[in-house]
Sequence to fold (441 residues):
Amino acid sequence: MSDANSKNQQYHAAIESVQATIAKLQKCSDRERNELQNDFQQLQAMFDKATKGRVEIVLFGEISTGKSALINALIGRDVASVDVQGGWTKEVWGTAWEGAGHRIAGLDDSEIILVDTPGINEVGGVGRAELAETTARRADLILFVVDSDINDVEYSSLLELAAVNKPIVMVFNKRDLYSSEDFQALSIRIKDRVAGLIPDDHFVTTSAHPRSVEHVVDDEHGHSHSEWVRPEPDVQDLKLLILDVLEKEGLDLIALNAALYAADKSDRISTVRVQMRKRQADNLIWGMAATKATVVALTPGVLDIVGGVSIDALMIMTLSKVYGLDFSLAQARNLSKAIAKAAGVFALGELTSWGASALKTITFSFATPLTIIPQGAAAGFSSYIIGRAAQHYFEHGGSWGRDSAKDVVSHILQSTDKDSVLHHLKDEIKKKLPWNRHAAK
Ligand SMILES: Nc1nc2c(ncn2[C@@H]2O[C@H](COP(=O)(O)OP(=O)(O)OP(=O)(O)O)[C@@H](O)[C@H]2O)c(=O)[nH]1
Ligand SMILES: [Mg+2]
Fold:
């Protein structure tokens, strides 16, 4: 396969991975999609960027190193505010580099965006690491701008950026401020320090906004006076290097970026989904267990049936929906039975049946908190265990995973703090006791 062909394949595979991640997101429940709305927009933007062939070059570096001045010099007019004070650029923003003269073959709409960022020392500790990370994630190419020897803040930011695996070019700006000897010595020191992080041929020197120099001018009367003239910016080497990198690797960079981005987002979708499902399942299991506890306690004889449907089966059916599996009531009932069987007579049977048969024989008027609270709580506990087991089953895509149902249920029983679950369920029953209502009056 030719090199161009394999590049194209990589590029298309990357776009497909973004599409697949978008599809994964679309398959989420309404609630999950709501939570992931920003990610959806970002993925769409990445899809747009990759299909159009938009390359984002992010300038990164300490305050006042000349990032904004470099953007102006590359573009050839003042689009970014440059400031003597430092700390001028407050937000990340981008502008199209129209005169770059770069087109990715086959992508007629391809363009280069230069992205300006605040100086890294403008942003404190955690914020800085975050800025480095988000910046690096969106970048196809990073220009790390320095104007003197590298300090510790710069070095640690460089490490953070390098961890994201994007190509970095080191731009040594303000060349005009150094004598040849000083410049040589500094270059060697900097290259030495970043060896292994930045390849030698990704090191370039610029004067984006050189200091004005004094010219002595003779007028026609033989008088001389001095004039301060700012030399033209010199960013030619940087421009050539950028265009060279894009020429050789433009499509690869876009593909790499899109693929990394899609993989990250896909992980995030999974994490958010797992968290949300877990939270929903938790609420459901506790809620249903409390309902069962209360129903068994307060309506003896009716047992655990609400509107003709067993609470456990109802719980399992609803749980299956949380996990994107649509169980029928019959399937739910079967799973509930399978779990009860796996739990064995001693675990769940003991808890539910003694309560049931005892309650059939007593009428409500005979029932006292002394008897009905533990009976109700025991019934609720069995639902809780059934719910947890069903949750495990659904978390594994509708199977017991590597273990048997029996192993799973006995592990759940062992790892559950029975006393605290019972305690909670008793509290739930007490809240609903008619005695309580009278007492409150
Ligand atoms: N001598 C010299 N000064 C420069 C050069 N480039 C920029 N400067 C000066 O450095 C100062 C800061 O330039 P900016 O472009 O605002 O720097 P920045 O990195 O964008 O700064 P922040 O946005 O504040 O982080 C300004 O006074 C510029 O005139 C250069 O090549 N040589
Ligand atoms: Mg700036």
Residues 277-440 form one domain.
